[in-house]
Amino acid sequence: MWDWEPYTQTRSEDRPPGEILSLEDCIRGEKFVFLGAMVPEDQVDAAQILRDFDRLYALYEYSMKEAHPAPDPIRGASARLVSAATHTIASHLAVEIEVDLRHNLLQDSLIGMLKAEFPGCTVHPEWAVAEESRVDVAVDTRDGILFCEIKVAPHVRAALRQAIGQLLEYAHYPDDRRAKKWWVVSEEAPSAEDVSYLQALRVRYSLPVFYRRIDASAAVLGPET
Prior knowledge:
The chain has helices spanning 23-26, 46-64, 93-117, 156-172, 192-205, and strands at 4-5, 10-11, 122-128, 134-141, 144-150, 181-186, 209-215, 220-221. It is an alpha/beta fold. The protein has 2 domains: 4-89, no CATH class; 96-221, Trna Endonuclease, Chain: A, domain 1 (3-Layer(aba) Sandwich), CATH 3.40.1350. The radius of gyration is 24 Å and the shape is elongated.
């Protein structure tokens, strides 16, 4: 560990961490301390490190300022007040990286599951459609083309909201019919309301959209909803 001196823009010599004997002696203005667990190299989680640094960046910026305003509740992007005890300011970088990594993992798992579910059929990852768009996975089944759109979302409703517009465009824009069936694939279990909503979309608007829950760790793809 080492100290950073903001005025001289230098750091101290690296030294091993030790016991804090006097807290008062250690607390000094304009100091930023980041503590982390030491783990073997093969257990390092790079995504978690990025998330931690991303969440702490606003605090780092604050600690490096020459003059600090009076403490104030942290404000969100919409300027509404939120509790500083339960919220922090963070950029979207770590969140985007985490979502991308999770999406790639789910996509790789889904491809293997689809090959097992549709033996002998061609599975197309990142299949190109109109306007240079790409559907996450397409399957050339014996009953027509299947489009699969993967969403990393906190609940099924959010996954459907994000995916259905894309699938509608991928299948039809500007005036084509490229897929006979659409799957929205995500990790959460559908509620009774989700099931009712999907059924209504199929009946009222003839949208061939279904939801399937994926469990990458167990290599299980749930039934059509």
